Amino acid sequence: MVAPAKNLQEIELDDKMRSAYLDYAMSVIVSRALPDMRDGLKPVHRRVLYGMLGLGLRSTAAFRKSATVVGEVLGKYHPHGDVAVYDAVVRMAQDFNLRYPLIEGQGNFGSVDGDNPAAMRYTEVRLTPLAEELLADIEKATVPFVDNFDGRHQMPLVLPSRLPNLLLNGSDGIAVGMATKIPPHNLGEVVDALVTLIDNPEASVEEFLEVMPGPDFPTGGLIIGREGIAHAYATGSGKITLRAATTIESDQKGREAIIVTELPYQVNKSQLIRTISDLVRERKVEGIAALRDESDRNGMRIVIEIKREAQPNTVLSTLLNKTNLQITFGINMLGLVDGAPHTLPLKRALAVFIEHRREVIRRRTEFDLDEANDRRHILQGLKVALNNLDRVIEIIRKSRSREAATEGLVAAFNLTAIQARAILDMPLGRLAALERQKILDELREVEALVRELESILASEAKLRTILKKELLDLKENFGDERRTRILDAGAKDAPTHIEDLVPSGQTVVALTLGGYLKRLDETSGRNAGRDPIVSYIAAGTRDTLLLFTAKGLAYGVSVHKIGAVARRSDKGAAAGALVDLADDDRVVAALAIGQDPPKYLILATKNGQVKRSATAEYLSARGAGIAALRLDEGDTLVAVDTSDGTGEVLLSTRLGKAIRFKEDEIRPTGRAAGGVRGIKLDAGDEVLRGPIAPRMPLVTTFTDAGYARRTPLEEYPVQGRDGGGVKAMRLGGKVGNAVAVVLFSTRGGDFECTVSGPKVEVVDGAEIPMGDRVKLGASIPKLAEAGGVLTACLSLSSVR
Fold first, then answer.
1. Distance CA 672, CA 243 (A)
2. Could you say which of 110, 432, 466, 656 would form a disulfide bridge with 731 (CB–CB 3.0 to 4.6 Å)?
3. Peptide bond before residue 758 is cis, with ω within 30 degrees of 0
4. Residues designated as active site
5. Alpha-helical regions (H) of 414-459
6. CATH number at residue 153
7. Shared-domain flag, residues 374 and 255
8. Are 405 and 516 in the same domain?
């Protein structure tokens, strides 16, 4: 057996894994993913800028190949992949990513379409004037330096950064367990916010918002609402809504088009156009006739041509909802403060920068003071020499060496060795009268400078004044106009909800037997019967249409998102294209819910179960769907209606039975609950789809053999729930079975009956005899001759 080595240590694996992971996480956080709150840069960006300064690539220098910069940075400061370094160079040169680019580039540096930049051997770069301000005074020991990876060079831990680059250009990055996303801002506004804090350390968020109202993105666009901005500034995190800048234009022929001129920040234009094209092809967006990109060097211009029968605002609202024409930008002002990650509200972020600049100015002043004192020391020695010129010359002439002359001058005039060497280095030409006077004048200037620098270091007020002046000068030199407009959520051109863009008005939605939906305009003609219509729903253009399926699910879709059709023969939009409907499910009922929704919904199933629930339970329904009720095995939902809570329920069956009872016999229950029995059914019978909350005085029953009868509602006695009901119409034999029950007004009107073919026959209500419910219905010739009725409903004109 081998004895264990003496230097082995037992370590718990989970402890080692924990410590190793934490080390890795902190390395990613500090050295890669998060920016320093002082200069707003990550290490790779800082090293690129410093490397370019070392190469002499100032804004006035000639351009150099990007590969030169990448090689310089890799060889001296950043021992990682060249791709990471070149990506950093590219991003700092992209004017659509940075509000104020730090690198000026020549060549292809990518585009807002997501195009890749050219290889580093093709592109050329140099610093921008603003980048030089980040590096200004770095040679004056204003920031700490550390050794590079091999100890041969030194590099700055942070840049002096005269401007708050973190707020100007923003930053984003994903670390381990945390992420940062800081939006860019306008330079002039940020300077004003800094000046506000310098003048008033107790300034509130509201005061900052007065001078710095919100982010300012390089791509422009709109910010909708100010609440998210205020929350982000107050807490360091929040959400804002960004929207593309759009206009609606008409050509000489009256054709309208949506023109997109500015996109939300970091939205890929090419991908956006593909998304819109896909939505049109999949019929998820209706009303678009053509789509093209007319962008050029003069600016962005995406043209979305609108069909003549469509409303541009309706199309725009759909696009805002389904594409990146409108996005949510999550703000998380996370960065490094003293080497540790912190999420900072705006005031604290500004204060960190001010403290950094205060320290830089202090260190710069100390550096200048040391140099001024050194120069004063030499000039004082030269003054002594000039005042004792003959004696100085005599000492020098008698000295056998330079060292001896230095010692002699030090001994004779109580000078330092530095002063004595300066005297020995002084050219003879400086002994002329004018040159002597220059030395004395320079001494007075340097002594004044020393006093000024010492006063700055002794006065906090003077430090703040210098800081403030430098900021205002930079605002004067680099300030520009805001690009992103901020609109109040309640403003006319900035609706709180996308639906507010839709013109308010009335429309009619048709639901077909095959589950298609189509919104009919005023010119829509007679239905050609491609797909039998089971109901017309009068609705407001801003209403929500609740869709109920056979499997007991409820979906919500905005009425304006249902494409308008000029002809009722048009197919319309499949419900599955509007909501996430399962392939084996189908829509059986639809209701329009507006600003003042009804109090209750009443639901009925094929097997005679009924349920009453508060409408509010269903208002959360969206495209993903929610449960409408719990169904028993083998049962399906067939009818849904609205109620104010004081009405009645009328259930009709295929075998000609009907029951009428008070609504309050159904106790209200939640969405997930099942129903109670409303009618006892005979074998083979089932409840018909259609209206079940009677609000009109006539009940019209149609059979599949083309018979029909109108009966006053009062002929149906009010009973208790869970009974067998009464005969609604004598059926059987040639009369066939009931296929539809339609509630009707005494004012007149007509019905649309879909017959075999399919084909639509319009039946005037006057053609249907009025009679007792127990009598045989009358044959309607046009229906009987067509071979049978598939479904029937009130006609479009009757609904309107």
1. 38
2. 656
3. yes
4. 122
5. 417-425, 433-458
6. 3.90.199.10
7. no
8. no
Least Cα distance to 165 among 132, 139, 117 occurs for 132
Determine the distance from the C-alpha atom of residue 222 to the mean position of all C-alpha atoms in its chain, rounded to a whole number.
11
Q: Which residue's entry shows tokens 């006739």?
A: 289
Burial class (CB in 10 A: 0-12, 13-18, 19+), 375: middle
pLDDT tens for 605-653 read 999 999 999 999 998 888 888 999 999 999 999 999 999 988 999 999 9
Task: Show which of 430, 463, 478 is a domain's final residue.
Answer: 478
105, β-bridge pairs: 125
Any domain includes 590: yes
Q: What is the pLDDT of residue 693?
A: 86
Q: Are 307 and 289 in contact (CB under 8 A)?
A: yes
Q: Note whether 356 and 471 are same-domain residues.
A: yes
DSSP 3-51: PPPTT-----HHHHHHHHHHHHHHHHIIIIIS-BTTT---HHHHHHHHH
Residue 664 burial (CB count, 10 A) = 14
* 274: enclosing H helix or E strand: helix 269-281
Instruction: Find residue 274's DSSP bridge partners.
Output: none
What digits encode the pLDDT tens for the residues 754-796? 887 778 888 888 888 888 887 777 888 888 887 778 888 888 7
Name the nearest CA neighbour of 650 among 711, 597, 705.
Answer: 711
Greatest Cα-to-Cα distance within the chain, rounded to the nearest angstrom:
149
- Give the pair of three-digit tokens for residue 539: 């609705």
> Do the Cβ atoms of 628 and 610 come closer than 8 Å?
no
**DSSP-based three-state secondary structure for 112:** coil
Q: What domain range includes position 304? A: 245-324
Is 173 part of a structural domain of the chain?
no
Domain for residue 384, yes or no?
yes
Query: Does residue 314 form part of some domain?
Result: yes
CATH number, domain of 523, equals 2.120.10.90
Rounded to whole angstroms, the Cα distance separating 554 from 406 reads 100
Instruction: Give the residue among 714, 718, 664, 713 at the shortest CA–CA distance from 691.
Output: 713
How many domains is the chain partitioned into structurally?
4
